[in-house]
Specification:
Elements: E1 10-13, E2 18-21, H1 28-36, H2 42-48, E3 52-53, E4 64-69, H3 72-86, H4 105-112, H5 127-131, E5 142-145, H6 149-160, H7 185-194, H8 196-201, H9 205-218
Parallel strand pairs: 2-4, 4-5
Antiparallel strand pairs: 1-2, 1-3
Helix pairs in contact: 7-9
Length: about 220
């Protein structure tokens, strides 16, 4: 079995030889519904039916493998709103970082950047570390972008005979707030440094410049 110290969830649809590398906060609910059907508790359905595995067998490694990534800045805002604002105290206590009682977004960012790649919860873990092993090899055949989800996913859907992609969790901000307004120049730089490989490997490097320009205009 292929294993790696970094925790991953591979979603396997064996009848069509397809593997989805689950990336939380990047349309994972919609993709699972497309693969298996419109079940209300899709994550639980996938787990209960043993479609989820932490490692790939030699046979599964020959399947077509894909995942999706997202602008790291927006992904962290989505994580904060869902897991801190909506579901308070969602994250566990880490060895050296207390994730309980987070009061605002700045507080959230300044705590998670101190957590190592291997300890990080999948909802705020490095996307590059998810998609690549420790030797820098990409674990999937295709990496699509959330920002171009429909167009990037459609060829996969057609090829493997999957259901149309549903529109789940459509609202970018649960609070109706511009995601850029969550950041300060300090936290924008902290996130860029922490997730630099996410920005550079997946074509989001220019998002740092755009965010900083926006924040400077607010001052």
């Amino acid at each position: 079995m292929f294993t790696d110290k970094f925790s991953r969830e591979f979603i396997c649809k064996q009848d069509v030889r397809l593997v989805y590398l689950n990336n939380p906060k990047v349309a994972c609910s919609s993709i699972k519904v497309s693969m298996f059907g419109d079940f209300e508790y899709i994550h639980r359905y996938v787990q209960n039916n043993n479609y989820e595995t932490k490692s790939l067998s030699p046979e599964m490694r020959s399947y077509y493998k894909f995942t999706f990534v997202r602008n790291p800045y927006v992904r962290l805002v989505s994580c904060y709103e869902d897991k801190i604002v909506k579901n308070k105290d969602h994250f566990p206590q880490y060895y050296h970082i207390d994730m309980q009682g987070i009061t605002n977004f700045d507080d959230f960012i300044k705590r998670i950047i101190k957590i190592s790649y291997y300890e990080a919860d999948p909802h705020f873990a490095s996307q590059y570390r998810l998609t690549h092993n420790k030797w820098g090899k990409c674990l999937v055949d295709y990496v699509g972008k959330f920002e171009n989800l429909k167009n990037d996913y459609e060829p996969i859907r057609i090829r493997f005979g999957l259901n149309p992609l549903p529109h789940r969790n459509k609202v970018a901000s649960l609070l109706g707030k511009n995601w850029m307004d969550y950041y300060t120049l300090e936290t924008a730089e902290l996130v860029y440094k922490k997730y630099k490989k996410d920005f550079t490997a997946f074509g989001y490097k220019d998002e740092c410049r755009k965010l900083k320009e926006y924040l400077k205009q607010k001052v």
